[in-house]
């Protein structure tokens, strides 16, 4: 690996990686379909908007979407995309929800909730989202199921990005601390590049408790954004919490 190959979590290389590593068209379409159905009258806020993988197609459907992201590099990639310059985005910490408006839907997809580094940050995120929801508003997010992280199975996987580049992925799991670190090794034209992403994973019941602390109640839970049933064998869940009308 070259001296510049190890890219920090906030580097431009991570912005590129998120853009090419998780842009499966079928997944994007099913997620946008679900979000459009949950959006209500708007406006809608995406936490972790990144390069606009979800926000831009959702906006193209006529939904009034705003964004928050903690990375200036990812926002810069968003601005390069068609329609990205017009999307209102705030640079700031996701858990702080650093915006002024109230929303009919706030969403945090692609496992972004687990990137919040501590229990305190995750609870604060729920509380701040609730503060920015209009009456009857929803908070939708996804996450891996705890057991699927703990029994991750194959410690090393070889896959490919959406543009066909080879990618090696492995996960370190600390069960006691409820954390895992994913290491991605991407082979672009100039040589091997490593991206390291730490996560704090949350069981569904723990997420439900965070929601109750914030005054939200579980409305839906699916096994995917496409609406597959959530069962005892599901490795992933999509949960939708709602603020009461009054």
UniProtKB/TrEMBL annotation:
- The membrane spanning regions, by residue number, are none
Specify the superkingdom. Answer: Bacteria
Show the GO MF annotations.
methyltransferase activity
Q: Which Gene3D superfamilies match?
A: Vaccinia Virus protein VP39
* Record carries keyword Methyltransferase: yes
Q: GO BP, one example?
A: methylation
Pfam families linked: Methyltransf_25
Which UniProt keywords are present, listed alphabetically?
Answer: Methyltransferase, Transferase
Q: What is this protein called?
A: Methyltransferase domain-containing protein
Source organism (scientific name)? Streptoalloteichus hindustanus
Q: What phylogenetic lineage does the species belong to?
A: Bacteria, Bacillati, Actinomycetota, Actinomycetes, Pseudonocardiales
